[in-house]
Amino acid sequence: MDFIQELKWRGMIHQMMPGVEDQLKKEMTTAYLGIDPTADSLHIGHLVGVMMLKHLQRAGHRPIALVGGATGMIGDPSMKSQERKLIDEETLRHNQEAIKKQLSKFLDFDSDAPNAAIMVNNYDWMKNFSFLEFIRDIGKHITVNYMMAKDSVKKRLSGESREGMSFTEFSYQLLQGYDFLHLFQDKGCRVQLGGSDQWGNMTTGTELIRRITGEENVYAITCPLITKADGGKFGKTESGNVWLDPRYTSPYKFYQFWLNVSDADAEKYIKIFTELSEDEVRELVEAQAADPGARPLQKRLAKEITTMVHSAEDYEAAVEASQILFSNKASETLHKIDEDTLLAVFEGVPTFEVSRSDIEEGIKLADLLTEKAKVFPSKGELRKLAQQGGFSINKEKVTDAYAPASADMLLNGKYILVQKGKKNYFLLIAR
User: Fold this and answer.
1) Which helix (H) or strand (E) segment is 301 a member of?
2) Can you state the percent helix, strand and coil of the chain, rounding each to 5?
3) Of 244, 284, 239, nearest in space to 263 by CA
4) 353-391 burial code (b ≥16 CB/10 A, e <16)
5) 351-354/424-430 β-pairing
6) pTM, entire model
7) Residues 126, 70: contact at Cβ < 8 Å?
8) Which of 40, 150, 247, 278, CA to CA, is 20 to 30 A from 331?
């Protein structure tokens, strides 16, 4: 597999330095990607870079995932109008371990293969570097004129931000440049990968290596920043980022995000976020064109990425949960799914708090749903709807409005789903 050709057909190259293709064809090459450790989970905005590392390893090269413990303490000015809050070492270490666990689903860190992935933290080599040493040994090699010419610096100094730019942030590109120098000297790393907003910082690294060691054969490759077809921000939902950690974004919500992308985005994303071959993608695109309503692109994209990030079991559960509103086996599924998925499926439906003891003591449904929870305005309306077959508890039809409630009805030990007619749902929460 040719790494550059693979990235090209997938639409994953924005810029690359001349000569990098020859370097990658010549020998197994080590390349690194920096990851910001300001949270203990990656989100899908990180996945483009992670997939670059994955394809790199598949092509026989050695990936390094660099957790920016030192640079994360400062904050990269690229694409930012304000400085970041600084984080402490203990938090950084926790975040690093969590990120490595997630990356292990994409990269082989543990085998004895020569191109096994490595994880490093730049805090480890920066923490003992004194300020005087840094400005003497590193700072003298790069001029202020060179640094001022970078877009990330120019934008911040041109008045886009009233706060201007601190010296701390101004020094960021030197720190990132030193990372490349260190990895070149310590690990033989010759390529840096990153998003297109990083180009200025990345070229500072190649320039620093050239000036300090005289080595010319070091390179940078950037991928485009992912956008949505409608111009909206990729990976953002109303509730914020789409995270890889199920504590922050449930597998069901994760699956739903990919399932609901537009046709144009699905065609782009399936190339970037899966390992499917060019032929497989072409067949899916043709199938989508022939029958857009069947949405084969979105379904396959959601399957591949949910399985890769979570598991096949989580994918199956998400599919099952997404069919609750239409499936004949919905009642069975409701009793199986976890609380987060249940709440995600029925997000936004009206909720009522009821007494657990009332349910355990067998309160009549008519009393429960008119007096304790105002789902129905009257017992007469409930009785009439039940007789017509339009009333369900946990997706099972109930014809007797005066049947007793019971603890067996509680989903996850605390919820009862009430359906009134075809489309009106209510969630009772027993406390």
Assistant:
1) helix 296-309
2) 50, 15, 35
3) 284
4) ebeeebbeeebbbbbbbbebbebbeebeebbebbeeeeb
5) parallel
6) 0.86
7) yes
8) 247
Enclosing H/E stretch for 251: helix 251-259
Distance of CA 359 to the CA centre of its chain: 40
Strands 415-420 and 391-393: antiparallel
**Measured distance CA(217)–CA(190) in Å, rounded:** 7
430: tokens are 């027993």
**Tokens 């708090």, residue located:** 353
The Cα angle at residue 261 between residues 256 and 266, in degrees rounded to 5: 120
What are φ and ψ of residue 388, in 5° steps? -85, 0
Q: pLDDT tens for residues 156-187? A: 777 655 667 878 778 888 999 999 999 999 99
What amino acid positions are annotated as catalytic residues?
A: 38, 43, 46, 80, 84, 176, 197, 233, 236-237
Distant-in-sequence, close-in-space partners of 365: CB < 8 Å, separation ≥ 6:
382, 393, 398, 400, 401, 402, 403, 404, 405
Comparing CA positions, the residue from 61, 62, 186, 170 lying closest to residue 122 is: 186
Please write the tens of the pLDDT for every residue from 141-159: 988 888 888 877 887 777 6
Task: Quote the CA–CA distance of 259 and 253 in Å, as a whole number.
Answer: 10
